[in-house]
Structure formats: C-alpha cells, structure tokens
Design a protein that fits this description.
about 120 residues, alpha+beta, SH3 type barrels, seven-stranded mixed beta sheet, 3 helices, PRC-brl_dom, PRC-barrel domain-containing protein, PRC_barrel-like_sf
Length: about 120
Amino acid sequence: MQQATTLPSAVITSDRVAGTDVFNPAGDSLGSIDHLVIDKRSGAVRYAVLEFGGILGMGADRYPLPWSMLKYDADKEGYVVPLEKEQLSEAPRYSSDARPAYDDQYTRGIREYYGDDLI
C-alpha cells in the first residue's frame, strides 16, 4: 500500500504567524512578526508588523511591512523580506505602546516608503 504524501497547508492561522522569524536575503535576522493588520472589508492581510530592535523585546519598535513583501522560506522556517537592517532605520515604525490608527495619513507614509504596488 502506497502512503499518501501530505503537503504543507497553503494557509496559516494568525497565532502561528506571530513570533515567526524574519530574515533578509543574506540570512540575517531582522526580528519577528508581532502581529498582523487585516483589512476589515476585504479580509486581506495588509501588514505583518515586524518587531525589531531593543533588547529581549524591551524597547523594540514595530515596523508594518506590506504582507506581499514577505516570502515564506521553509528551510529557514521564517519569512524573508528584501530589506537590510539599515533600510529599517528610515522605515515607518512605532513603539509598542503607541500603536497607530492605520488611517489614511499613516498608510500613505507606508506606501511612500515601500511603494504603492506592495500594498
């Protein structure tokens, strides 16, 4: 009897995304996913919020990355984004205790930084 091969699911629950490591193409760790931002109307994930910087999570900032920018790498068991650590220094971000409203003005800043085609 031939055993069926199961492929990994094409979907993932949000609780499994939170805490997943994020790397740049060179394999350097950029941090981990803190949470997702979901469009209420379409249900699409707009942003994966990267926790980066600080020490042991203390003082780390949050960086909303366009979801389409993340590519899952099974070998790394994490997401890869086409960014270097230096690029994050100018990226839109906020502290953990100052979550933005993700209104039009805030979203415009993210689009201007990463490009409209990613959002």
